[in-house]
Description:
There is one protein chain. By secondary structure, the protein is of the alpha+beta class. The protein contains one helix and four strands. A two-stranded antiparallel sheet has the order 1-2. InterPro entries: Zf-HC3 (IPR031795).
Amino acid sequence: MYKFYWVPANSARHASTDRRPEGALVYPSGTAVTTLCGEVDLVADNSELAWLWATCPECYRVALRIARAADG
């Protein structure tokens, strides 16, 4: 739907525009991603508890801007 994906990494839920592996709905655990807040090479943690972490405020701001622009 949007050009970013949510990914738990480094004890927070971040967003990334990195491509996910073909056919994957999430970044597999251990995948290095660059996030919308500018963090480089964070390692994805696709565990159930990681999805409960707080959302990175900067990733949220950038993701909201991208979503609003896409919605017109």
